[in-house]
Amino acid sequence: MEPYTYNNTHESIHPPQHCKKELCDLDYSQDPPRILSNYLVHAPRPFNAEPHLPLLINSGSITPEDVFFKRNHGPIPNIQLEDHTVYIGIQRGLHDNQGQPAPVEWKALDMNDIMTKWPKVTITASLQAVWSGPRLCDILHSVVGVPQELHHEMIRNFHVAFEADDHVKEDACYGSSIPLRKAMDPLGDVILAYEMNGKPLTRDHGYPLRVIVPGYIGARSVKFLQKMIVQPQESSSFFQVDSTNVDSAWDSSPSLGEMNVQCVICTPMDKEVILSSQPVTVKGYAIAGGGRAIYRVELSIDGGKTWEPVDKIEQTPDRVSGMYWAWALWEKEVSKLHTTSQLVVRAYDSSGNMQPEFPIWNYRGVMNNAWFRVSNVIQMPQHNM
Amino acid sequence: MEPYTYNNTHESIHPPQHCKKELCDLDYSQDPPRILSNYLVHAPRPFNAEPHLPLLINSGSITPEDVFFKRNHGPIPNIQLEDHTVYIGIQRGLHDNQGQPAPVEWKALDMNDIMTKWPKVTITASLQAVWSGPRLCDILHSVVGVPQELHHEMIRNFHVAFEADDHVKEDACYGSSIPLRKAMDPLGDVILAYEMNGKPLTRDHGYPLRVIVPGYIGARSVKFLQKMIVQPQESSSFFQVDSTNVDSAWDSSPSLGEMNVQCVICTPMDKEVILSSQPVTVKGYAIAGGGRAIYRVELSIDGGKTWEPVDKIEQTPDRVSGMYWAWALWEKEVSKLHTTSQLVVRAYDSSGNMQPEFPIWNYRGVMNNAWFRVSNVIQMPQHNM
Question: From the candidates A184, A255, A306, A353, which should be mutated to test the interface with B, based on the most B CB atoms within 10 A?
């Protein structure tokens, strides 16, 4: 496929502006139907739910859309594919020659452009779906002329801000940004996805278009994508600055992006009663940030006093970039659980990073990756009734 | 500077072969003189020493050669610059068509080639010196034709093995390898250094040529470089397989490469007596792997019960790649120490990785990055004598 060159029409483009909504002005009546029994629902409006863990692990290595976690900040927008425009802007500096904020030069793409003008690539990324769409680096290069040379000063110092076509109460819309370096890294695998698991995105998962930033915290993978701006500073969105910059004491600190190493026991669950005297297979997943592999997973059945490596870890690198964006599924057979057993799991990534025993970074409670614990599992033999 | 194209002479090159030495055959009589008072010497032969920590931190942000740590596995070779040849080989697969081990095709460079044919770049990398020499990616591309496209299958799956022109008792020579992807990454900053802090390398630090692999454990930055082989598997050297593969239970696990996040208190030291009633400035350094920044450093003066962020952290990214290869220097003023005080420090990197409280990955004791502790510091007012 020939590299696509965006045709600069020289018309002046002004994308629509959202504005912050009052709580009472947010209309949830058009939210899509959901299979609530698959989820532990944390809040109905905005809809925030995580799958029941045994269901998550038992769906196989690819999570179906109706089991995949759902995290929202407002009503799900009701967007028609044929009406949707994606605006791409570039702001070449903070200020112009007069000291005023530098202007953003805008271009516009429709969904047909997005879906036909650049090669469609497919990546598997946590929390574990197959996503397809064009590479963000290809679009930014051909539409607004971002250089592809990783050493270029713009790549080193700029960011790409994303804005959703939605309404929320905290800001004009959901917004976030990632370093331009991540966006342009040929091994970074950032894509604009219009398909999840081989089908068009569902509304809950960002229809018609969302960003997928593998190896980064989920808050950067903006749904209902409407605007992207290449700019010299991070996004000033509430969701970038206030909710994920864990340490406001240091203004110079970048917001968090890459995930840290995490590990979860999916089965058995807290207080589960296992009616069998057979060995129990403990299962779960682990994932690290930045495309790093899961190197080791250890399980304790005595609350963390003694540890053994798990029996099996399966993790597949991306077939093109070779990066470990996908989760590792692990399991371990345990011969006998005691009723007072506390199961604890911890993982190490390929850079020797490991999970801490206790959550110790808790300015805002994000990125807590302390050892995962499951308590009060009771195993007893099954008698004839 | 025009990209240099290596002139393939088509002659058959056979690099010299080393062989494993008995302990009694290792001759240390030609080791260079050293300023022993700067060091805590762990072993005289092979010479292994680390600088006294207050000296390390008080030398400024760049460590002089005679304070920089020294780690060896045998006698320091006595190499003449004008006699030294670097051999570069490529093995295109594991086996040839007959099922025999695939041959290595060799090329040879002298030090004049290394020092004049490719642009000289300079990086600052832990444990903190300024290193200069050509980029390894430039050499591998022009000498043995390694593709520069990061998505190329060879880049994803191959390794570069390094061998030193030295003699050790564990193997034929010191050897190690890194993934070819790290070597070819334009932001990876792997260089072949012939200068340290603006002067030719000293013999203790690898004269005439060494590899510098920023963001990786020091064991990969091979000194006295004599051979490099691009090959489909990791180095089979003792120093790659046995001493840094922490978990021999899993053959499929790669050896460790990237460093994890570490932090050290350089001053005060264990059992130091501070004759002053003034506030004490605690100082140290922190560093993470993979070019990640140090995001936060916290100090406890009560053995880890309560924590405060330090007052100041200074870390400078590489001016070209923007990666954080250099250490972060931090300090915090403490108003009063108690004689029973235990100082503890811990750091977090920009991916949210943090140090664990206790060393928990100890198959071989490598990459222990538990919280660093300084005990029994005594502060008392200075009286007139």
Answer: A353
